[in-house]
Task: structure prediction
Amino acid sequence: MRTVVVTGAGTINPLGSNCRSYLEGLSEGRSGIGRVSLFDPSGCRSQLAAEVREATIPNDVPRPLARRLSRSDTFALIAAIEAVREAALETRDLRQTGIVLGTTVGGMFSGERAIFRHLAEQAFRFRTREMAGFPLYTSGNVIAQVLGLRGPRFTVSTACTSSANAIALAADMIREGRTPVMLAGGSDSLCLTTYAGFNALHAMDPEPCRPFDRERQGLTLGEGAAVLVLEDAEHARARGVTAWVRFAGYGMSSDAHHMTAPRSDGAGAILALRRAIAESDVLAEAIDYVNAHGTGTRANDPIETRVLKSVLGRHAYRIPVSSTKSMIGHCLGAAGALEALASVLALRHSVVPPTLRLEHPDSDCDLDYVPGTARRQSLDVVVSNFYGFGGTNTSLVFARGS
Result:
């Protein structure tokens, strides 16, 4: 089976518009959470979100295409262009490169604005460009069109594991020899529909989210995109490119339990993590850091803590575990890619991102959650966990070397 490596990445998120600014934000423990400005959150339990404050469509995108891009499409395209540049992929490489993107919202924000305008003006027709970016698959289409990708193309929508599953699927495509290079990641934008939905579930904290803290009251929503370049290690060496890290493996499972609530015993999440460790052919004791799902909800945090103890045993107490959602919020379908990228950057640059606003220890959450301040620490194996509505669970493993 072919070895899969990461040779580049790109992102735009509440901490910045590229990998360098993302790394700086994670290392400095910077928060991207503030008051919502994209729409009026009046009447909601929370008025907060982690927004991307500026997203400029690249100049070389043809104007007819640029006019129909949704917010989510724009995020995805910015991340993909940076990823291709970082990986030094040339035109001949792109012709055989595929793409898998995860999303849950797609162009819903653009669709909402079109509907509101339609109702306000009592118009009988929508402008085509207002709805062209609405379907979930458009971000992958746009990236393929702009970059000239002619390899396999998929869109994955499995709630908050969407882009983690996209990365896993892309890795399998390379392992099986179907293509030497894949872009993999996800993109989602904030929109009123999802904001109101989480408000109805009483799932949002009125204050900025505080994962693993005893006083936590819920999550904070976020937005953004991240794209990784996954590549056959031999292909990367032939191009003269140095791998960032190795994609070691993944595990997936389903709770088969409830529409929104996780299993209280964490059985599905335990299964996903065990499968990821087994496929990666690493010892549990070799794991140096866990980038937790860490939403800040009353249910998730103690369950994830129990999952880590169950799988890692006493080793769970010896390693750092942190939630980058405390800085960028919960970015839904893009969360998997953004947190996978955080894991890759942590591994590559020997830095463990912190968990912000963890001030009141919870007896049910008693691991080392890296409160407040990042740590400089050499890492060899990193795990990232992702759980989603409907009981979908995914764990990814990245390792140093190729």
Observations:
- The chain is about 35% helix and 20% strand.
- The chain has a mean pLDDT of 95.
- The first strand starts at residue 4 and ends at 12.
- The chain has two domains: 4-239, 250-389.
